[in-house]
Amino acid sequence: MRQTGTLKFFNHDRGFGFITPADGGKDIFVHITAFERSGVAVPAEGASLSYIAEEDRRGRGLQAAQIELA
């Protein structure tokens, strides 16, 4: 299910950040590869995004995929 949120933080040197969901709840991890796979450049912090939250392959929780600018 597609969700919306705001890019809270992104560390370009380390290649990851977090999205704050619009409906509240725990922040969602986002990796640079999710932006690359979606064909979207990493926006400035505070940008509105839509994404699919999916389980991390390593079982560490949710991460963002299929990112679009909202």
Automatic annotation (TrEMBL):
GO molecular function: mRNA 3'-UTR binding
Record's keyword terms, sorted: Cytoplasm, Phosphoprotein
Cited InterPro entries: Ca-reg_mRNA-binding_domain, Cold_shock_CspA, CSD, CSD_CS, CSP_DNA-bd, NA-bd_OB-fold
Domain CSD: 2-69
A Pfam family: CSD
Top-level lineage group: Bacteria
One example of a Gene Ontology biological process annotation: regulation of mRNA stability
SMART domains hit by this protein: CSP (SM00357)
Main subcellular location: cytoplasm
GO cellular component: cytosol
Keyword Phosphoprotein applies: yes
Name this polypeptide is given: Cold-shock protein
Organism: Stappia sediminis
